[in-house]
Fold:
Amino acid sequence: AEVHFHEFVIQKTPVKRLCNVQNSITVNGQFPGPTLEVRNGDSLVITAINKAQYNITLHWHGIRQVRNPWADGPEYITQCPIQPGGSYTYRFNIEDQEGTLWWHAHSRWLRATVYGALIIRPPLASPHYPFPVLPKREITLLLGEWWNRNPMDVLNQAQFTGAAPNVSDALTINGQPGDFYRCSSQETLRYLVGSGETILLRVINSALNAEMFFGVANHKLTVVAADASYMKPFSTNVIMLGPGQTTDVLLTADQPPAHYYMAAHTYNSANAPFDNTTTTAILQYKDATCVTLQGKSQAGAIPAQLPGFNDTATAAAFTAQMKSPSKVEVPLEIDEDLFFTVGLGLFNCPTPNTQRCQGPNGTRFTASINNVSFAFPKRNSIMQAYYQGTPAGVFTTDFPPVPPLAFDYTGNVSRSLWQPTRGTKAYKLKFKSNVQIILQDTSIVTIENHPMHLHGYEFYVVGTGIGNFNASTDTSSFNLIDPPRRNTIGTPPGGWVAIRFIADNPGVWLMHCHIDSHIFWGLAMVFLVENVATMASTLECWSTRGTGDDDYIDD
Ligand code: C2O
Structure:
C-alpha cells in the first residue's frame, strides 16, 4: 500500500465559459479540480491551503473514514472551516472500497467549482476488476453545473430573499458545456476509442442541484459499480444519477466508426424551474473519417436520446435494477427503527412579501427531516463540542426518530406541518446497533426525488416504493439477500426508500439531501455514533475556528 501526498491550493482563478470570464474558486488553478488516483488499501495525505477569500472545508465523498471522523470535512460538523490564509491536513485510509468516488468543498456553495474525482482501483496484489470484460481504457466524466455569476452570490441572494435560487446557465461534462451552448463548441471534449474496444466510463454527478440522465448515442451501457461498490452487471440505454452519486459503466465500441455524443440533461422530478439545457462531449472512433477534428462538431456527431425531463418511470426502473453481485450481510434484527420524512416547507413571514419573503405567497423556503430544519452551528463544530463534553449552546440530542405527527405524506398535508422548527439536533446511535431508516418523501410544496447522503457509512438499499410506507405490507418485500450498497440514494418523488446499516463507525456524521439548495434550507440531520470521546485523535482539528460569518439562514 502506498501513501499519496497532495497539496491543494484553493484560490481564485479566472475561468471562461459561455463567452465570459468568472473569477472562480479552484484547486491548484484547475477546473474541475485534480483527480486523485489510488488503490484499495492506500492512504492519502492532503494539505488544503486556503488562499481564497472564503472559509472552506473539503469532503471526501463516500470515503468511510473508519474511526477517523476528523478528516470527513463538513463545516461545523466535524471541523470548523479553514479560514482565508489558513490550512488543514486531511489524512485518511482507503479501507475495503473500490470504484469511483469524488471530493468536493463542503462549505456553502463552494463545491460548484471546487470538486474532483477520487478513483480507487483494486490493490496491486489482485489488480483486476471483477467485470465481464476488462476495459482497455478508462474515462472519468464529472457532470456539473455552471453559473454566469459567482455561485456564492446566487446562494446569498436566495438566502436573503427566501426564494428559490436561480438555476444554472449550463450543465457541464468535466467543466465544459459542449456543443449546444454559446462560445463552447471549440472546447467540446473528445474522447478517442478504437473500434471493438471496451472502455470503463466513471460517471459522477457533481452538480450542485441537478439530478441527471446520462447516455451515449447508439451505445448500450453495462452498469458494473455505483458509489464505489460493485454491482451485478446489467445493460441499459441510460443512467440516472442524483448529485453525489457515481455509476461505473462499460461501453463497447461496437457501432460503425463515427462520432457519438455522450450527453446529460436534468431529471426534474419536482414541479419547479430547472436548467433544461443539454451538455455533451464526444466519443470519437479513431477510424472515423467523417468530421474535422477542430470545432464545428455539430456537423457530424450522432445525437444521444435521453428520457424526458420528468421521466420518473425510467429513473425508478434504472435504480431498481441495482443489486450487489452476490449475497451480502444485511442486518436482520433491527435495534433502531427510524422513520424520516424528507421534504420542503415554507416559513411564514412576520411581514409577508417584504424583500426577505420572496418565496411562494410571501413566505421563505425551508426544508426539514421530521419537521426539524437543520441549523448549522456558527462558531464550533458539533464534533468539537461533543469531544470536549460541552454540547450546550452548540447542539442537542433530541432529534425525533419518527415524525411528530403521522399524516398522509402523499396527500394534502395540513398547513401546520408546512412550517418546521429550526434546530441543531443530533440522534444518538449506540455503537454497533443495527439501524433501519425509512426515508419518506412528503408532498409539502412539491413531491421530489431527494438524493440522501450519509457520511461515514455505506448502507444497503433494501426496499423502495411509491406512496406512503406501510410497515405491515412493505417490509415483507424487502431484498435482504443482495441489495445494492450505496452512500447516496434517491427518496423517490411521492414515495419512500428503506436503508439498513450497522452503526460501527464512531463519530459525528451528517446525513443530508445532496441537492445543495435543500441543505441550506435545512434538509439535514446529524448522527452521533458513540463513543467519539474514547477515540484516539490529534487535536489538530481544533486549530481552526469559525468566524461566525457563515450564517446559513438568519431569520
Ligand atoms: Cu458529498 Cu455531505 O456530501
User: Anything to note?
Assistant: The first strand starts at residue 3 and ends at 17.
